[in-house]
Amino acid sequence: MVKDTYVAYMDPSNEQIRLVLLFDEQFEINSHELLINTKQRPKEFVVSNLQHVLMLKCSTEEDTQDWVDTIKNCTEERSGQIWLHKKRYGSSFPQRLNSYCQWFVDAKDCWEKVSSLIEMAREEIFIADWWLSPEIFLRRPMAEGNHWRLDYTLKRKAEKGVRIFVLVYKEMEMALGLKSLYSKKLLQGLHPNIKVMRHPDHYLGSGTFFWAHHEKLLIIDQLIAFVGGIDFCYGRWDDSKHLLTDLGSVQFADQSTKTKVSVSTTGDFQEIKLTEEHETNVQDNGENVKILEKTIIDGNKPAQGGRFKDVMHRAVERIRSSRSRETTPITNTPSQLSTPEEAFTSEIKHVTPSIRFNNFTGNLSALEEHDSTSITNEENSTRNFESNGTEKIDKAKEKRNSIGAIALLAFPMEPKQRTLVRRVVSNLRPEKARRRWRLALQPSEETHDEYIVNYCRLQDSKVDMSGLQGAGKLWPGKDYVNFVHKDFVDVDIAFSDFINRYDKPRMPWHDIHSIVYGSAARDVARHFIQRWNATKTEKLKDNNAYPYLVPKSYNSVRVPKIFFSPETQRVEVQVLRSVSHWSTLIDKTEDSIQQAYVSLIANSRHYIYIENQFFVSLINSPDVNNEICRVICDRIIRAHRENETFRVFILIPLLPGFEGDIGATSYSALLAVLHWTMLSIAKGEHSMVENLRLAGVDNVQKYISFCSLRTWDLLCGKMVTELVYIHSKLLIVDDLYTIIGSANINDRSQAGNRDSEVCLLITDHEFIDTRMNYQPYKAGKFAFSLRKRLMMEHLGLLEGTYPRVKAPSTIQINVEDPISNTFYEDIWCRIAESNTRIYEEVFKVFPTNLVETFDELLAWRAENKLADDDQDAAKERLSKLVGFLVEFPVNFLRKENLSPTFASKEGLVSSSIFT
């Protein structure tokens, strides 16, 4: 089978796919080397790529030549040819112009969007995770019981015929208690349409004992892809408040203190907007590109109209009347996997004859009209961003309706019932709203009608939680975590606490994720398919229950605009990876993530903003090889010599997220990672600070700030504090370039032949006017909005911010110009220093720059805390805090040797585990 971007070998006896060869830079057919090595005969030909070599035999020489010509023709077409050329940064994937992308800060908004789009899936869902906990809740508070629990959500889609494929990291059980086998058994036990594979198998000689699959991916219908640092697992859900306590109980907000919801990152709650669109033609790389210019006008009143019954009825009717619906090009699927059509048909028998119309209540707040956008990129791939519906612009609706109403929307109806429904619906809905729906749904868009149905059903079933504060609980069972205090145990017992939440605060989690649509999402899906097929070939080649997957065509990628949120930006996207033979069976090592980091940092003009879980990067050291620290150092030295205003913002967690007590006599992984972090930053000849000083940069803080996050709260009357764990994997450069993904700053993530990783490099192509070092500047919408959002959160400037971290109204903070002295020195660095001094005074926190030896640490911990001695005075001091920002203590324990001892288990293994 030959398609636009791959060749698949099918077993002629049963037409099941036995091997898939993706077009790549090493894709060849009948090369001279292959002909010699395989001793090819006239009726045979050989196809190879980075993963496989396949010899095929035909019945005649004419057939052989026909196949060879067909494959060569596909590789010469633009959609196939692009895979054969080298790409920027050594990536396997091209740059995708005119892509659409959105960022998420913290898991709350991200998982709400995830839950919405999973509900809209039509054909398939791909999930790749380092750790996957099926019992996590995607939406909180859990006002709808288990409805939005991940396993329940996936089961619902599987029962409707959506095929779900999951790849999880197979951990070394003696080292990690992730219980991936438990997750696999639970998910596969839900429905035959859910297939899970674990990788790698850690056998002798495999070389995989130390490495992990670290990607965090969700791909829906090969059309939507979530990429970032957030696993679907315990402890990840959080929001900008970063609460320390969760004792449960639902409370209702006082009516006078309710905050009006405006624009959210999920697009589910928005101000009412109307749109006007104007078509213009512009030149892009010599080709005509049709672009829609959208003018958004705030409206004062919602559009009048009822709910979504009529549009959903028409969409369902079109789906059933069409000849057939195009399904995902996945073959070799076992017979027990029910198709969407079978699932759809099988549900007919469960529909009750009588349909209750009295369940339709409420009004549609607003409708947003969209035309179609036809976009042609450099690879001649067409992306038609369709107007298949609206983005709902309203508060959450009433609780889901009865089964009778759902039956009306989802199940086929007899002609008499259809007539009755049309008559009732037409009486319930004003003509103006009906016209808008007719404009949104064109007859030629039948293939995406099911997206419309699922979208409307989802909006119709919203539960109003605007008056709720807290829940019972936000972090149930294993979700209430504090990694430094105690590592996970018994993760297969989901709702049993393992930390005393009345005594120990939770450790808040700060993270970054993103969503991308269209061809860039196809690229992310292609990576997943490559990994899935490699795992099947390695472990389950002859098991027909686990099919080979194939990519969808790039020739026509159509994205309904109902997926978009107001925060979705038009950008250029390139997929970056760290992969090698052990992770994907390819005969090369790809380190395009590191190459992109190094290039962007070296060519930066104004600033570098980094948030990362780790910072392990030495200069000219045989122990750590990634170049990130060196290139940052070189850029600062250049700025110093040329007297440039240049800033580097680095945010990392105050402590590594491993169980351990720094002052304890026993060694721990926490100290091992802290050792390499301190060597990278300021300790020893290979550190950044030491190399800067040797180059004559005496005032290091003028150019670079190392910061962290911390917060405090009251727990059962006791004042407590805890670090906010930064798990982000983010780089922003000059408000123009952004890297979001799963890659940490260490050799494990950057080398390419260790942990497997996926990131997105997002380059802005739409700009806004702002200022950089007091001068007018064109900033990219995506990078600028994300950097601004993060700084506002860290400085307590977000609306609705938790009172304990809100910036005092007396402080005027503008984050738009990040490198000016007014912001960098007078606000960012000064607030970090002030907050640090306050926490040290009130709580005697550590790590701290006031402690350089273990003896000093012991004495520091023994000192009386103001929080214990005088709560009123402590609260007065804490009222001066501004946001979460604190200094990272670069001199903590600098006089101690923190390297692993030979007597510890950390000293018995290779240092590469920690670097």
From TrEMBL:
Its EC number is 3.1.4.4. Residues 319-343, 370-392 are annotated as: Disordered. GO terms for molecular function: phospholipase D activity. Coiled coil: none annotated. SUPFAM superfamilies: PH domain-like (SSF50729), Phospholipase D/nuclease (SSF56024). It catalyses: a 1,2-diacyl-sn-glycero-3-phosphocholine + H2O = a 1,2-diacyl-sn-glycero-3-phosphate + choline + H(+). Pfam families: PLDc (PF00614). It comes from Meloidogyne enterolobii. This is Phospholipase. PANTHER family: PHOSPHOLIPASE, PHOSPHOLIPASE D. Belongs to the phospholipase D family. Residues 327-339, 373-388 have a biased composition (Polar residues). GO terms for biological process: intracellular signal transduction; phosphatidic acid biosynthetic process; phospholipid catabolic process; regulation of vesicle-mediated transport. Keywords: Hydrolase, Lipid degradation, Lipid metabolism, Repeat. SMART domains: PLDc. InterPro entries: PH_domain (IPR001849), PLipase_D/transphosphatidylase (IPR001736), PLipase_D_euk (IPR016555), PLipase_D_fam (IPR015679). Residues 1-76 form the PH domain. Residues 209-236, 722-749 form the PLD phosphodiesterase domain.
